[in-house]
Design a protein that fits this description.
The protein is of the alpha/beta class. The chain is built from 13 helices and eight strands.
């Protein structure tokens, strides 16, 4: 005699709520629930596809195979957060980007110049309405092109792995970049940008605060102003200072120096906040899109506090963000 189905006496709507809650709580559970029945799969599949993280070539190929059996509209509308942290194959990366046209937060951990050379920028430019993009790890090690950022992106994080901090005016000074292409002005190609984060490792040969004037010029002097050198929509610049454990003391001093320089400069520079880079920017991105603390939250709080203090007349040096 078979055991009665535990949910047989419950309304379908309540049963669905139970399964969806379980799927949201744990991804392994979500995957297992898709095997229970076609109805349960129909309920839990959208949850499973909401955030997709592809960290190996094997997982990339498996996802390409999986979406080949899905209606194109399902993939286009259900994948909202996409992280690709494997170097290739580039053709598979392009296939995923083309299919996930509705993605709102995109994290790229593959070489953008290699992708651009092999596939072009069509898939990124065709994204319907991306809000956030993170160019992490090797993404910008050998070059960077604004066409590889979605046209509607408001929040952008760039890992400047090749940044020479002795040349703070030229953050994009890659081997093939001209002087004009190397400057911060390249960010003006992103007209909707409100939040910018840069991840870099300062060198001991140049004061970390040397970068502050160059960043401050990107910020509008005040809300109603017009300034040719700035990005009119930009509201916040977050500097994430990277450093190995053995360099923790130096990184800590660099963060204090950057924040002190921003406070001392005042004006637009009050919207520049420095903090320690996470041990894994990819993991920080994934945690934030899964409901954890956002990448920008601490910096936004620091800026609000600074601006409030300035309006109240309290000396800005009374607090420095650590």
């Amino acid at each position: 005699m078979s055991a009665p189905f535990v949910f047989s006496n419950l309304p379908v709507e309540l049963v669905r709520d139970v399964f969806e809650h379980a799927a949201h709580s744990d991804r392994t559970t979500a995957r297992n629930l898709t095997l229970v029945s076609s109805s349960v799969k129909h309920w839990t599949d959208p949850i499973l596809y909401d955030t997709v993280v592809l960290s190996t070539a094997r997982s990339l190929r498996a996802f390409v195979a999986a979406i080949a059996n899905k209606p194109s509209e399902f993939v286009h509308s259900r994948v909202r957060n996409l992280g690709i942290f494997t170097p290739g194959p580039m053709q598979s990366i392009d296939c995923v980007l083309s299919a996930c046209g509705g993605v709102q937060s995109l994290a790229c951990g593959f070489s953008l110049p290699s992708y651009m050379h092999a596939q072009g920028a069509q898939a990124v430019q065709a994204l319907k309405q991306p809000r956030e993009q993170h160019l992490l790890g090797v993404a910008c090690r050998d070059g960077w092109d604004a066409s590889l950022v979605g046209p509607t992106v408001t929040h952008l994080r760039i890992h400047l792995a090749s940044f020479d901090s002795s040349r703070p005016e030229a953050p994009f000074a890659f081997t093939s970049a001209s002087a004009q292409e190397a400057g911060w002005d390249r960010l003006k190609a992103l007209p909707f940008l409100t939040h910018l984060a840069i991840v870099y490792r300062p060198s001991g040969s140049t004061p970390p605060a040397a970068i502050i004037p160059h960043l401050a010029r990107l910020l509008p002097p005040h809300a109603d102003s017009e300034h040719d050198d700035c990005i009119q929509s930009l509201q916040l610049i977050l500097v994430q200072v990277a450093g190995a454990k053995k360099d923790a003391s130096f990184a800590g001093e660099a963060i204090k120096s950057l924040n002190a320089a921003a406070l001392s400069a005042g004006g637009p520079a009050l919207r520049i906040v420095a903090e320690a880079a996470p041990s894994s920017a990819a993991r920080q991105w994934e945690d934030s899109v899964r409901g954890g603390q956002g990448v920008w939250e601490r910096a936004e709080t620091a800026v609000r506090k600074r601006l409030t203090t300035t309006k109240s007349g309290t000396p800005p040096g009374h607090f420095v963000q650590h």
